Amino acid sequence: MSNAHRVAVIGAGPAGLMAAEVLTERGIGVDVYDAMPSFGRKFLMAGKSGLNITHAGERATFLDRYICNDERLKSAIERFDASDIVAWMRGLGIEAHKGPTGRVFPNMMKASPLLRAWLQRLSDQGAVFHTKHRWEGWVENGALKFMTPGDPKTVSYDATLLALGGASWRRLGSDGAWTKIMAAKSVRLSPFGPSNCGFLVNWSDRMRQDQAGQPVKACELSVRTNDGVQRSRSEFVITERGVESGGVYMLSAALRTTLQQQGEAVLNIDLCPDIDVQDLAKRLAKPRGKKSFSNHIRKVANITGPKLALIYEFIDRAVLNNPDKLAAFIKHIPVPVIGHVPIDEAISTSGGVAWSAISDDYMLKNLPGVFCAGEMLDWDAPTGGYLITACMATGRAAGLGLLNWLSRD
Ligand SMILES: Cc1cc2nc3c(=O)[nH]c(=O)nc-3n(C[C@H](O)[C@H](O)[C@H](O)COP(=O)(O)OP(=O)(O)OC[C@H]3O[C@@H](n4cnc5c(N)ncnc54)[C@H](O)[C@@H]3O)c2cc1C
Fold first, then answer.
1. Which of 128, 191, 215, 396 matches a 20 to 30 Å C-alpha distance to 281?
2. Residue 345 within a domain
């Protein structure tokens, strides 16, 4: 393979930058393009409340978090997993720590020092950066076409790696507009869907006014889908429009699919997952004396605030004085979900380039010499570090695939 090869990486998020790293390490000349005035805007946003870059857990459980109809995603992650990411960060002078649930963060929490060090290393390895270059497809001779603040530009390369992201938070650059270019080239795409997003519930005015913004802690959420029951044990937040945050994000694929298939979905909440239903009924049956219902349920089951409001929101009042029925209700509050927030508000998106459209080297079968990586590929995962891990792992796999393709002659 000749070092005279020149490659374009378009999209400077974690997937594109990881591909650029693999390529520049092997002496390939790389131009990195992004439509935005600076690189890695979504990566920086991810670091705003602590960059959860990966997750340290059992490998099998870790891989089970991904929803993808192709084994190549898992094999890319097996080749660049949580421990590799921690070692890679250390190589950039950034130490990591593990939170109580296995989430891994850089010690200083923010993404900016990591991104700065990463860009510096890429530049030292010879990568050339081009901001404000919006890729718009190809001209007739196969050269890439870019819109820039000045004149449009066309540039030819030996190969191109696209890492254009999904279709949410368009103000950070990931607008999904690339799907039009792909569709015109007959690249097979799966429609985008919102993931790790809020869902809509038609709360009463009282619930909305009193409880919006309140976290509901230590509960278990579940959704019955056509394939069985999906569960998540985490807290969530009541919002003006519905429900949001950790525990709900874990179930976003299940809720989204059920909404698509059935037009409605039910989010079941177990407010006391550590107490079984008989024990809870016994506790609720204790004599109440002169205590109010609210005081009684607080004392016997530690249910207060938003948890109590959820009971009042959905219960048939006749059940309040029946300990068995009340216990069953508290263990299974059915919250009707009527939709999801707009896709642009989602933390990530499912859908994108279908795995059947790319070769084992991550090259588009319809477009020889054009490779894809990151969130623009069709996979889904919850928050918790799984998203960035898969973006980096596929960025690396696609970069290596491109190298393999360049070395074919
Ligand atoms: C609020 C928030 C918090 C998050 N927190 C976490 C977290 O803690 N942990 C985690 O794992 N994940 C998190 N994520 C998700 C994670 O940031 C994304 O999954 C990841 O950034 C996707 O990486 P990517 O490289 O595939 O694409 P992106 O990071 O989206 O990068 C794509 C790049 O392509 C550029 N681009 C698009 N179209 C064009 C074009 N036509 N021409 C030129 N350039 C183009 C964009 O400007 C963008 O810079 C979070 C996301 C958000 C929004």
1. 215
2. no
